[in-house]
Design goal:
The chain is built from seven helices and 13 strands. It is an alpha/beta fold and about 280 residues long. Strands 4-1-5-6-13-12-11-8-9 form a nine-stranded mixed β-sheet. The protein has a two-stranded antiparallel sheet with strand order 2-3. The longest helix is centred in the C-terminal third of the chain and has 22 residues, at about 235-255. It has a single domain, classed as 3-Layer(aba) Sandwich (Rossmann fold), CATH 3.40.50.
């Protein structure tokens, strides 16, 4: 019997679509994220429409990884005890409710977790960190937003260099201590959550990537968008290849779990920032 594909859960955005005053709610997933999972991680992307927090354990039992995607909507600042600084910016409280709980569940159950842009910020907030709501207005920090109105090739093109922590798995993926990444975000890390270790920084010192200390499986987040034309950038492709390997390991464990239904613990050491033999490679 042919083995089923690895499956990766990508939570959907909640958005109103249509003309003003005549809108309907939609659940959306950007194609570029699904395509990077399908082709880069060699896994089947899927969504669970209207998934509720109480269902997270049973739904995680069906998948081999979770990718938290970017989104036009910001994480609601109430989750880090701040009022909304700009009411004109989009929010998605329904997604917040699901993803912040999903982060905790992934780490508890050893489910591979990849966070990109908003997803990177969600991991930080879920674990007790905070965000700058408007990085461009913080003294000493750059404007990390994309040039509005420019072609997507320009918006998602290399924007600034990042410095990677020596000996980290990101340095291995990038093939060196420094590389250039795209930049399309208004929010950014303010206080890094306990349990997270910064693995990359922008020239202004802003955290651009992190790993979860002591994670039972792949657990990394990055502020840039590696899904954008990932196959054209070896660094981006390496991220999804590593995520895919972690998902296949999870699948082996999941499919061979005892009939009791209990999740087996990983039989390999968790990825370590200073251990290049971790499953994140």
């Amino acid at each position: 019997m042919k083995q089923p594909p690895c499956m990766v859960w990508l939570p959907a955005d909640h958005r109103l679509m249509g003309d003003h005053g005549h809108q309907m709610p939609f659940l959306l997933l950007g194609e570029k994220y699904a395509r990077a999972v399908k082709q880069g991680a060699q896994a089947q992307p899927l969504i669970f429409p209207l998934a509720e927090n109480a269902q997270i354990p049973e739904l995680l039992a069906l998948v081999d990884g979770v990718m938290l995607t970017g989104s036009p909507a910001n994480v609601h600042p109430s989750h880090f005890n701040e009022p909304v600084a700009d009411p004109g910016l989009p929010l998605d409280p329904e997604r917040d409710t699901l993803t912040l709980a999903l982060v905790q569940a992934c780490l508890e159950q050893g489910v591979p977790l990849l966070g990109v842009c908003r997803g990177f910020q969600e991991i930080n907030v879920a674990l007790g960190g905070s965000l700058h709501q408007q990085v461009q207005n913080v003294p000493g920090l750059m404007d990390h937003r994309e040039p509005k109105g420019a072609p997507y090739e320009v918006q998602y093109g290399p924007s600034h260099p990042i410095r990677l922590v020596p000996g980290s798995v990101l340095e291995t993926w990038a093939g060196g201590p420094e590389t250039r990444v795209n930049s399309l975000h208004g929010q950014g890390i303010h206080r890094l959550a306990p349990g997270l270790e910064a693995l990359a920084h922008a020239p202004d010192g802003l955290v651009e990537a992190f790993g979860v200390r002591g994670a039972r499986a792949f657990a990394y987040g990055m502020q840039w968008h590696p899904e954008w034309r990932f196959s054209e950038t070896p660094f981006y492709a390496a991220i999804f290849e590593a995520f895919g390997r972690a998902c296949r390991l999870r699948q082996q464990q999941r499919l061979h779990a005892p009939e009791s239904g209990l999740e087996p613990r990983p039989t390999v050491s968790p990825p370590s920032d200073n251990n290049k033999q971790g499953i994140g490679l």
